[in-house]
């Protein structure tokens, strides 16, 4: 009987030890399950953050692929603008012609003689020796006073018609500071005579 008691005691101890060990194992399993659950939740949050970042990157890529909206003009824009400017200029010329014809009609109706608008005639050239036609050397040429409607090209053309072989470039070179786009009425300029020595 002693043997049986001893076996019973060992069996009881083993069962109690196993139960105690099972409880400790169960606690460790529960703890590990909690940690795994926390990791899964963290992983899900990170997945959402990664998806949001991927969307932002895709949006930025789309913005880069879109044509830039800026203040610069393309060649087509410039061509369209040039065509519009030419159209406006043509309309301006047509309006000017219409105004002149209407003025002529009004003048005829009122008995006033009409003189068509012409650029101011060039006064016959008078040879002069300018004080500073160009840097350094003296030149022979003519002094001319700018009149309303004058342009460098028309002045050069008129002098060429009178036998003075001068170009617009020569007139501009002989008059430093002369702006061909802003001719000042009454200003005196020098017209060089390349043939005179």
Mind telling me which CATH architecture of the largest domain this is? Roll
Tally of separate domains = 3
What is the third-level CATH name, the topology of the largest domain? Membrane-bound Lytic Murein Transglycosylase D, Chain A
Series of secondary-structure elements, N-terminal to C-terminal: HHEEHHE
Percent helix among the residues?
55-70%
- What is the CATH level 1 assignment of the largest domain? Alpha Beta
Strand content: 5-15%
Q: How would you name the CATH homologous superfamily of the largest domain? A: LysM domain
Main β-sheet, in a few words?
A: 3 strands, antiparallel
Uncertain runs: 117-136
Mean pLDDT, to the nearest integer, reads 78
In one word, what is the shape?
A: rod-shaped
Description:
Helices cover 59% and strands 6% of the residues. The chain is mainly alpha-helical. It folds into three domains: 24-65; 75-117, no CATH class; 137-192, LysM domain (Membrane-bound Lytic Murein Transglycosylase D, Chain A). It has a three-stranded antiparallel beta sheet with strand order 1-2-3. The protein is rod-shaped, with a radius of gyration of 50 Å. The model is unreliable at 117-136 (pLDDT under 50).
């Amino acid at each position: 009987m002693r043997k049986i008691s001893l076996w019973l005691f060992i069996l009881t101890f083993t069962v109690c030890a196993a139960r105690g060990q099972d409880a400790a194992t169960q606690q460790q399993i529960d703890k590990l399950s909690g940690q795994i659950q926390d990791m899964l939740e963290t992983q899900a949050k990170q997945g959402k953050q990664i998806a949001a970042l991927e969307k932002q990157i895709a949006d930025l890529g789309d913005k880069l692929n879109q044509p830039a909206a800026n203040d610069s003009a393309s060649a087509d824009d410039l061509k369209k603008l040039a065509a519009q400017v030419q159209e406006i200029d043509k309309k301006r010329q047509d309006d000017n012609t219409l105004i002149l014809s209407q003025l002529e009609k009004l003048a005829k109706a009122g008995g006033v003689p009409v003189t068509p608008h012409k650029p101011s005639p060039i006064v016959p050239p008078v040879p002069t020796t300018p004080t500073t036609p160009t840097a350094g050397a003296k030149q022979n040429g003519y002094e001319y006073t700018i009149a309303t409607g004058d342009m460098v090209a028309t002045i050069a053309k008129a002098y060429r018609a009178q036998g003075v072989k001068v170009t617009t470039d020569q007139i501009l070179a002989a008059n430093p500071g002369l702006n061909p786009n802003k001719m000042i009425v009454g200003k005196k300029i020098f017209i060089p005579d390349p043939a005179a020595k």
